[in-house]
Amino acid sequence: VGLDEIPGPRALPLLGNIRDIDLAAPIDSLLRLAREYGPIYKLSTPTGDRLVVSGPELVADLVDDARFDKLVTGGLSELKPRSGESVGLFSSKTQDPLWQRAHSILMAPFSLQAMRGYTPMMVDIAEQLVEKWTRLNPGEEVDIPADMTRLTLDTIALCGFGYRFNSFYRDTPHPFVEAMMRMLAEAQARTTQLPIQTRLRIRAQRQLDEDRDFLNALVDRVIAERRAQGDAADNTDLLGRMLTGVDKASGEGLPDHNIRAQCITFLVAGHETTSGLLSFALYYLLKNPRYLERARAEADEILGTTAQPTFDQVQRLRYVRQVLQETLRLRPTVPAFNRYPYRDEVIGGRWALPAHTSITVFTPALHRDPSVWGADAEEFNPDHTAAERMADLPPHLYLPFGTGQRACIGRQFALQEATLALGMLLQRFQLVDHLDYQLHVKQALTVKPEDFRIQVLLRPDVR
Ligand code: HEM
Questions:
Q1: Active site includes 236?
Q2: How many C-beta atoms lie closer than 10 Å to residue 137's C-beta?
Q3: Which residues line the annotated binding site for heme?
């Protein structure tokens, strides 16, 4: 079956399928279209035709790195660097020698073993969150996504390059964070603009250049300070590993402009994704007291009255991790990634795709397939992602961290950080859903629950 026969909503002249997508809730629209048109459908967008795929048999082909590659497009790649500047891992092409070099240097510092070294820094920031919640007056609310973002931003900046944003001591974001957020909002806005519109928005471009210069300058300063420390520097963080690491294949290290791009990429890729995960996990626990109790019992058993959990304790929080994995099944905070075939290909033994066709793997639909997860696939239940079950699951059926060589390098980091933080919160606080919060999902580059506010009480038994 050729491209022309792939089903999909009827496209209007010029506008394509723009009216079929609710820009305020694109995930819901894409889920609805998947239900209506099936495992593969075609959408026409201002930037060209795109296939949206969520059928397990089709995804099985798309994850084959020998035949398919990551397509760098949309969102972040709108923020093209100036000529001669580097892009980070996330937005580089697989063929870029600097992607390969950085990937090879960074694999070890992002491995599970490396998390042992970062755990004390993760605890440092999680303690600041706990302190803040401990000191609230009765009746005060917490804004969950806002506090989770403080946590994840400060954690990646501290573990990444020894910098403290001190977000828990501020009401308004650090200027670096403000500039970064503005850049991300601009990237998002550009995905729905025609190229001519983008070129006409001169003021937006000027702001973008200013913000980029500001980010670059701060990171350059941090790098220069570290270099100035010479042998005395503690190079155990990600920055240190990048400054001293050498790629075995080429025998070369990373140039400073690339290290800078990686630092900024870690901040961008590493904070909203993980804060969205924690926010959704808290939401699901709040609405499912049975699972909340079980997670709390585990936190009590393994953490007890420990003030500063160790790497090994965090590893033993298996049910808490399961809760996070189930959260990523239903609410993958990076809900899609893009692929293309190197050559003409047939997928699922049926659909013929010409070389370089743009394909979007849409994980919220893949992750809700009842033939894989059972009749209650739409429901939150951490049994879905129990370790025994996941061990038997073909890997292409659960892809919250993408796939193959271009999968998320920060996966262990995110899970370690989120398990630790959720464990510490359960160990100390009772969560109160005083507003009977109704889930409203906000999607920018990533996904999070909007306006999610609760009250927290120090558990009477741990006072
Ligand atoms: C790539 C998801 C946390 C850094 C990816 C991809 C996904 C993803 C789906 C693949 C994107 C694609 O194929 O286009 C997530 C989720 C996270 C998370 C759901 C949290 C729950 C992190 C953290 C970091 C990070 C904490 C860094 C500290 C990266 C980088 C890449 C990436 C650098 C690009 C890797 C490459 O192409 O070589 N992530 N991520 N992510 N992620 Fe994450």
A1: no
A2: 5
A3: 408
Per DSSP, the chain holds a count of helices (H) and strands (E) of: 17, 12
Contact 79, 53 (CB under 8 A): no
Report how far ligand 1's centroid is from the alpha carbon of 138 (Å).
38
| Average pLDDT in the chain | 92
Characterize 321-334 residue by residue with b for buried, 16 or more Cβ atoms within 10 angstroms of its Cβ, and e for exposed. bbbbbbbbbbbbbb
- Predicted-assembly ipTM surpassing the 0.85 threshold: yes
- Do residues 240 and 227 lie in contact, with contact meaning Cβ atoms separated by under 8 Å? no
pTM: 0.95
What amino acid is encoded at 309 in this protein?
P
Q: Which position has the higher pLDDT, 269 or 283? A: 283
For ligand 1, atom 6, name the residue with the nearest CA.
408
Q: Which atom number of ligand 1 is nearest to the Cα of residue 399?
A: 9
Tell me whether residue 418 is exposed, middle or buried, using C-beta atoms within 10 angstroms of its C-beta: 0 to 12, 13 to 18, 19 or more: buried
pLDDT of 385-394, one tens digit each?
A: 999 999 999 9
Mean pLDDT of the region 289-298: 98
Our answer to whether residue 263 is catalytic in this structure is no
Residue with tokens 């919220």: 364
Nearest to 102 by CA among 328, 317, 304, 253: 253
Give pLDDT tens digits for 322-334.
999 999 999 999 9
Angle, in degrees to the nearest 10, between helices 256-287 and 289-303: 120
Nearest CA among 328, 318, 329 for reference residue 419: 318
CA–CA distance, 188 with 175 (Å, rounded to integer): 20
